[in-house]
Amino acid sequence: MKESSATKNKRILKNTIALYFRTFITLIIGLYTSRVMLEALGVDNYGIFFVVGGITSFGAIITGAIATGCSRFITYSLGEGNLERMRNVFSTTVNVQIILSFIAFVALEIGGQWFLNTSAKIPEDSLYAANWVLQCSIAIMILDLVSVPYSATIIAHEHMSIYAYSSIISAALRLAICFLVKDSQFNHLIFYSILLVCTSLFMRIFYGIYCSRHFEEAKYRRILDKGLLKEITSYSGWIFFGQTAMILNSQGINMLVNVFFGILYNAARGIAFSVRNCVRSFISNFTTALNPQIIKSYATKDLDYCFTLTNRSDRLTWLLTFIFLVPIVIETETLLKIWLGTVPEYAVTYLRFAMFESLALAQGNGMVTLINAAGKMKRYQLEVTAICILVFPLSWIAFKLGMSVWIANILYIAIYFLMDIPRFMALKRLMNFPVRNYISSVWVPCIKVSVVSFSLPLVIANICEPGYLRFFILVPMSVIWTLFSIYLFGLEKKEQSFLINKIRCILKLDKKSYSL
């Protein structure tokens, strides 16, 4: 029986709430974990961990490609109601993982060892520990890779509550690890890396048990559907091609920074990335809840609803990012002092750039999901990669010419904002996507909110002296002002009415509860 739009929207709202609960808890734990981790490892070891971990992040392009491919095919099959195809997709993806795990292991052992021991700027007395970090990071990458079909199946079935609980458990374990490392007599860097491997192994077992008990298709069978294998590998291969540029532009730039400027810059960059990833995780909850519905709607050919969800996803993603971006950018220095106590040099500037990077990276994700749903990736990936791949070589040239370390951040932000152009071209070609409607319903309100939300906080910041008093006044005021701007300029009339009705219902419930 076909679900109504109201039922779908209700499920999206429910899943979004579950994911926001998950991220609120993991955000608090994650930020505190970064502080404890910095204290436990020290600035130099923190920078080393960030650099060495970045080497294996090249393996994340494999994980990300398979995750996107697996999620797309499972969700599409769910939309079609094809159980047998779902079983084949799951088992075929497991087979692909086994092959890719071996390839990734060999490539990272050779390439990672070469870079770490010949090109990275690691102090001589820390090189032994850094090699341990490399081996543990490779193990974690492989465990994450083989967990992909299970987490993708959970998201495809929209069991967001269990996904939220597992993330909270993982975050809590990482915090516990930091305390263990801080008080241990072992080499902190080595001990920390080994315990992270144990955490990843635990989560892999947890996902496997849950999926096998709750989803009929999540039971591995020794089958090799050659047609499906070709379809998945072709799709994932083009995703892989596109994500290679993305990893080069993040972890590749991190390695360039290490080679040209040293590990102090890497430590500051690592702090900024911790905050950026927390904010991105919070924002991605909304898109995680929406993405299955976008793909299922495309599978059932309900394009009007599909386009509406895509526009709403991109607009609200931008607006939600600004709730965090405004106070963090204005009060960066005081925020880092409260959070870390001792602020690494260059961390303030890195964090400000990182917030705008997160906005550039997040915008347009709804369109990306819609393109993924269509499944025709080759031309799109060629077009989008041709643009975003420029960040790495241009940064390399700039560093060679003696330019500032910040030029890489500026290039990243500028180029990623241009990504909407090939997305428009692809969607227009694939399904006659209404670009003008997208611009009027996404870009116009987002630009209005962006300008207005910064206006009042900047005035107050220029009037008041920096410090804790200004911080505790300006941060909540910035959030309230941004929310007010979003309500006035960012929400459609129906969304404004929905929000007002929900608030009235809550107030009426509170009043009834009080009278009782």
Question: What does this 3D model show about the protein?
Answer:
This protein has 516 residues and is mainly alpha-helical. The protein has a domain of 200 residues. The protein is built from 19 helices and no strands. Helix 1 runs parallel beside helix 5. The relative contact order is 0.10.
Structural class: mainly alpha
Radius of gyration: 23 Å
**Mean of residue pLDDT values:** 78
Structure annotation, total helices: 19
What's the main sheet like?
none
Q: Which geometry do the CA atoms define?
A: globular
- Indicate the low-confidence ranges by residue numbers: 511-516
User: What is the number of strand segments?
Assistant: 0
Please state roughly what percent of the residues sit in beta strands, choosing from under 5%, 5-15%, 15-25%, 25-35%, 35-45% or over 45%.
Answer: under 5%
- Helix-strand pattern, N to C? HHHHHHHHHHHHHHHHHHH
Give the helix level as a range of percent: over 70%
**Distance from first to last alpha carbon:** 41 Å
Descriptive tags:
single chain; 516 residues; mainly alpha; globular
Concise summary:
With about 525 residues, this protein is mostly helical. The protein has helices at about 5-55, 60-80, 85-120, 125-155, 160-180, 190-215, 225-260, 265-300, 305-330, 330-340, 345-360, 365-375, 380-390, 390-400, 405-415, 420-430, 435-465, 470-490, 495-515. It has a domain at about 25-225.
